[in-house]
Amino acid sequence: MERISRIRERLQVEGIDVFLVSSPINRRYLTGFTGSAGLVWISPTRQAILTDFRYLEQVKQECPGWELIHIESYIESLTTLIEEDKVQTIAIEKEYVTVNQMEDWQEKLAPTFTGVKGWVEELRMIKSEEEVANIRKAASIADEAFAKLLPTIRSGLTEREIALELEFLMRKAGASAMSFDPIIASGPRSALPHARPGERILSVGDFVVFDFGCVVNGYCSDMTRTLVIGEPEEKHLLIYDLVLEAQERSLAAVGPGKTGVEIDAIARNIISDAGYGEYFGHGLGHSLGLEVHESPRLSKLDETVLQPGMIVTVEPGVYLPDFGGVRIEDLVLVTEDGHEVLSSTFKELYVVR
């Protein structure tokens, strides 16, 4: 498998004997194992999954080609592997190993442990065809569910009622889970970028922000749309049109060779030039996959060069306290000659009358 070959190349370059994977997401990415407990051992000559009795049959089904090691004590199993493979150095994922676990390993195991970061996450940046297909399907389910939801939205409903119906529609269409707790935020609450659905009742004059996604075969989608309850006022149209322009122009720039900083600046400058820069306080977008937030980012800080196979969101927003906010987000695949938008829901302002 190419992913394991890349890890082995990294071991050789760094002069380390073994890579020990603790992150559940990285474990799944490398092996296909979806269980909740276990370690992954990768050396130049061995690839093994260490797990307990609960998952032995699951590993056999999900992970062909992997050695299965039944553990009762991680220390005992690791000691055996270290002796068999004559291991002197082990790389561990420093973002996922606790201080307590690290101290225990250092005390009871002979090798030198080296904390590393990003070995698997860098591989996850570029999606395979299968990964893209899963994300595409998740995006399609979200689009279809939102299309069915829109005609049912009216003043008098609560944010929570709408969120429950949206989740039901996505699960009914085949989603295994939500990518994250959906954001349904109305009126002044729509100025909170990460508001959670509450008991507020939708009323005439409200912006309503919908930020949601679902999971297919472990892979996430993410989309945001904003609508208005009742005839929009001039202020509604001004803010909405500004965000839409920033979204469409920055999205048009997505392609191989561009950096997150460059694309973020397009949207940020449009909003700032209109006098609303202080009301756009988050990055323009992020990648996703097995997690809803992955690298690279479209932000003021990320200089990562986009490559074909990367997937990013493009989601500028303007959030006015005591009035409301607008965010518009599409899911975008970087291609050899530009990009493909995976979100198909229309972006014209939808008015609930």
The CATH class of the largest domain, by name, is Alpha Beta
How confident is the prediction overall: mean pLDDT?
97
Given helix and strand content, the structural type is alpha+beta
Name the CATH superfamily classification of the largest domain.
Creatinase/methionine aminopeptidase superfamily
What is the helix/strand order?
HEHEEHEHEHEHHHEEEEEEHHEEEEEEEE
Query: Low-confidence parts lasting 5 or more residues at pLDDT below 50?
Result: none
CATH architecture verdict of the largest domain: Alpha-Beta Complex
Radius of gyration over C-alpha positions, nearest whole angstrom? 23 Å
Strand content: 15-25%
- The helix count comes to 10
Describe the fold and architecture.
This protein has 353 residues and is an alpha+beta fold. The chain folds into two domains: 2-124, Creatinase/prolidase N-terminal domain (Creatine Amidinohydrolase, Chain A, domain 1, 3-Layer(aba) Sandwich), CATH 3.40.350; 129-352, Creatine Amidinohydrolase (Alpha-Beta Complex), CATH 3.90.230.10. It is 35% helix and 24% strand. The chain contains ten helices and 20 strands. The strands form six sheets. The chain has a six-stranded mixed beta sheet with strand order 4-3-2-1-5-6, sandwiched between helices. Strand 18 (330-335) and strand 19 (338-341) form a beta hairpin. Helix 7 crosses helix 8 and helix 9 (234-252) runs antiparallel to helix 10 (260-273). The N and C termini lie far apart (55 Å). The model has no long low-confidence stretch (mean pLDDT 97).
